[in-house]
Amino acid sequence: MNRLLLSLAIVAFLSFATSISSTAQQPIYKNPASPIESRVRDLLARMTNEEKVGQLATLLGWEMYDKRDNSISVSDKFKKAVAEQRMGMLWATLRADPWTQKTLKTGLNPAQAAQATNALQKYVIENTRLGIPLLLAEECPHGHMAIGTTVFPTALGQGSTWNPALIQKMAAAIALEARVQGAHVGYGPVLDLAREPRWSRVEETYDEDPVLNGQMGIAMVTGFQGASIKSGANIISTLKHFTAYGVPEGGHNGGSVSPGIRELMQVYLPPFRDAVGAGALSIMTAYNSIDGIPCSANPFLLKTVLRDQWKFNGYVVSDLGSISGLFSNHHVAASPADAAALAINAGLDSDLSGYGFGKALQEAINKGAVSMAVLDTAVSRVLRMKFAMGLFESPYVDPEKARSQVKTASNVALARQVARESITLLKNSNNILPLSKSLKTIAVIGPNADNVYNQLGDYTAPQADGNVVTVLQGIRNKLGSNTQIQYVKGCSIRDTSTNTIAEAVLAAQKSDVAVVVLGGSSARDFKTEYQSTGAAKVNATSISDMESGEGFDRVNLDLMGKQLELLQAIVKTGKPVVLVLIKGRPLNVNWSAENVPAIVDAWYPGQEGGNAIADVLFGDYNPAGRLPISIPKSVGQLPIYYNYKNPTHHDYVESDAKPLFPFGFGLSYSTFEYGGLKVDVIPSASDVQVNVTFTITNRSSRDGDEVAQLYISDKVSSVVSPVKQLKKFARIPLKAGEQKTVTFQLRASDLMLLNSAMNWVAEKGDFTVLIGASSDDIRLKQDFLLPTDIQVKR
Questions:
Q1: pLDDT band at 70 (very low <50, low <70, confident <90, very high)
Q2: Are 583 and 691 members of one domain?
Q3: Domain region containing 43
Q4: In the annotation, is 525 catalytic?
């Protein structure tokens, strides 16, 4: 017995000793108990220059897997890229659209997507010297751009909700759908200000205002990243596009901009600052230059502002091809190697393309244009994200979770709610809306009435039959078989070669009311050619319906094709007409505003848009969307954002200077009354607290939401200030007859400006508080005095 006990003791001791030895031999970077910074330093010390350069490359991911029937494996191209480039990241691995040539047949459903990302991770971990897992980035602006996911309204619709809490909930749903399929980074939010509606990417932006934009950015970052990116349900948020990308000269996508430094700091940078303050871990540079300096090689933006002033501790990624664009587009670099050196030395860490850094960066290092310290700094920022996400311990995902947790019933219901809250009622003469559900006949007319892809916007994957509810289907769902519904397309968005306007007129004549659905399209098709960046190649003779979306800049904002002709013909019948607009940018609706009794704006409302629009049209939902962007009367008024700087605009010879519909505008089926404004100023040594209190009363018999908006006007300032500036807002639900007291609190940071010495100061003097239902519908106002200057740290 003693001999047996002795043998067991020896075995136990040897096992323990082996365990200790194994632990001692384990590299620090593979030890999850070690601090992240220690793991980064240890791994960095083990890497060759080639491996470091590889970690900064983000290759196009959809080329990296093979699908044969239900079998998913890594592609030969991926194996070659791993062997030759040692890349650390992939982008858009799960993306499907005409550019990638991935269809419902050749692309991946959620379970297959999880299998694909697992296969990619397994290969790179098992077939590289150090086994560093991949960081996988995906497009996630209004849903994960992959097959089988939930499609929410595009950003202008999200901005129209004026409800950051709802957008945060939406972002969390998008993050979960992406993460369970194996993604780690979501590209979004887009924080460009929408001040140039001719620009093709307006639909991707939230609004024209830095405060509303900043709140939406905070909501998206918080929803994406959650409490921890290690949760298995959250993803890293990449802010786009840094910066001032949305106001290119002439509306040309990627064109140069030249705001003054004060304009840049006070208007274009604050939304990014707010999102960085919310914890954003990644940021993407813009294609454009600012005052002659390309954003992808701008040390003032990437070092002084982002790192020194804002204390950003994430990583910076280029937009697709923007590093090589320093050489080929901006012509500020004499070679690809010079372009790589310019970018990384300016503070750009990661290359989205795989060819901006790669060999070019290695060449720059070899000739001494990039130091080891600069290279190590960039690589450490990328590695830090991989450790923080727990990828070294948990690189794989569960395909069954992907199958069950993507596009759930609750996410589809959330898409409907976001769409409902985004819908904006622009006109409702004689209370034509809501429509009665007892209508005997209704005509549903227009190119966007029953077009799945025209309803979804750009950056959307192919959709299986039945995934998307169009306006026609939504009305059918609402009315059932009791109402005769006649549908006629009437015309296309752009193509004028054929039309059925005569049939549409006949349908309207036979109906009690006509719902006409017009607007624009960002629907990509397999006939369109694309640039290497994914933007479309556009020419004047193209007859694709696409007139919005990346690359589709406009010279005017008129309804294209025969749409206005169709609408005029329907109105001429004398039947009641409701115009529903589905589009990605403000369009010229001057004639409609004068002649159509009811106008509903839905932007691109996503997969549940048809149900949401029907909910509003038939009174099951009281609209409370508010315009996040001013609607001009003419392109000759541009730019026409509400918070322009003094002096006040004067009228033109042909027209007044006012927009057709102002920022913040939107009607309701309820009537709201404001009153009881009180403003209390409580100064302190280093700040001020201004409490603004008022009441809102629902004076109707219908429950509804009101969006209360607080604007500030600085009566006298040391530098020229906006005529008014949104500072606070709230979407407030009110029962019929209910009154609520609303309190907004302003601090010195809400009153500050960048003075002539380039210091942030809330200057002493008189301010006016303006409370209203839009920027042009002020119901209450009161002056208050700030007794002393207050320096604000930024």
A1: confident
A2: no
A3: 12-404
A4: no
